[in-house]
Amino acid sequence: MKKFLTYICLFSSLLLVLGIGFEVMLRRIPNSYKFKQEIIEKNSDKVKNLIIGSSVTNCSINPAYLADSTYNISLSGQWLRYNRILLERYIGQLPHLQNVIWGISYQTLWIDDCISQDKISIANHKIYMGIETDKDPLYNIELIATGSISFRKWSKYYLLHKKTMACDSLGLDHGFDSTERSHAWLQDIPRLIKGHSASQEPAAEQTFRDNIRRLNDVAGLCRSKGINLYLVIPPVHKLYYELTYPAQVAQMHTALEEIAAKWDNVRLYSYFNDNRFGDDDFHSGNHLSADIGAIKFTQILQHDIWNNDSVQTKYPVHSQRP
Q: Looking at the whole model, is its pTM more than 0.70?
C-alpha cells in the first residue's frame, strides 16, 4: 500500500510539473489580447483616436487610413462588456484622446462576455489583460479554462511554427486578409446568420438592455472627458444582408439612433447595407478583408467623420424573412 501511494505521489508530481511547464509555454505564445494591451500602454501619450469593438472593427478599420495617432484595440469576440471596461481603465491615461470609434455588428446588442456564452474570452481577458469579471481562480489557469483550445494553440506555435497573432503595429488584424479567405465563404453565410440572429428568450432581451446601458455609460464617460463617440456599423455582404431579420436590424438601428440623439457627443454611422462593397472587399459574410475592404471602408469612414456626414442606412425590407 505504501509503495502504491508513493507511485501515486510521484505520478501526481510529474503531472503537476508538466502542467506548470505547459502553462508557462502557453503564456509565451504571442496573442492578440496581450498585444492590444501593449499597444495602448506603450502609446498612451500619442493616442488621439481609438477604435474599439469586436472582429468587425478588428479587421475592417485601418488606422493608417483614418487619421494620425489612431490605434485599433478591437478584439475578435470582444463584446460591449469588455469594450467598456477597457475604455474605463485607460481613458484617464490618454491625455490626447479626442475620438472613440466603436464598432457594432448585427449580433452585438444581444451578446455578452459572460460565463454562459464565452468562458474562453473571460480567461484570456483575465490572464493577458488583467481584467477580472469572475472570481473563479480556475480562470487564471489557461490550460484548465480553455481546455483543448490551449493544446491547439500550443501545437500551432511550437510544432507547426505558424503565426498565432497577425496584427500590425497599429492593431489591424491581417488574419482577415483576402489571402486567408475560405473558398467556401459565400456558402457559409447562411450558417453565420443562423448563429448571429437574436434569441427570443427573455435572457436575450435582458442582455440587450444591459448592452444599451453600457453604451450609454460610455457615451456619458466620453462626454465628461470632452471626447467624441462614433458608433459605426460596418458593411456586410449582400447575401448576408438579405438573410438578416428585418425586425432585428430595425431594433439595432432604433436603439443606436436613440443613443445618438440623447448625447451631443455621439454620432451613428451605419454602412450595414452599403452597396459600394462587393465580393472582393470581404473576408467573410460580415467581415471586410483587412488588406482590401478595410482600406476602402476606412477611406469612406474618414471622409464621413471628418466632414461630419452622419450616414444612416435605411432599414431593410425583405421578403425572404418573417
A: yes
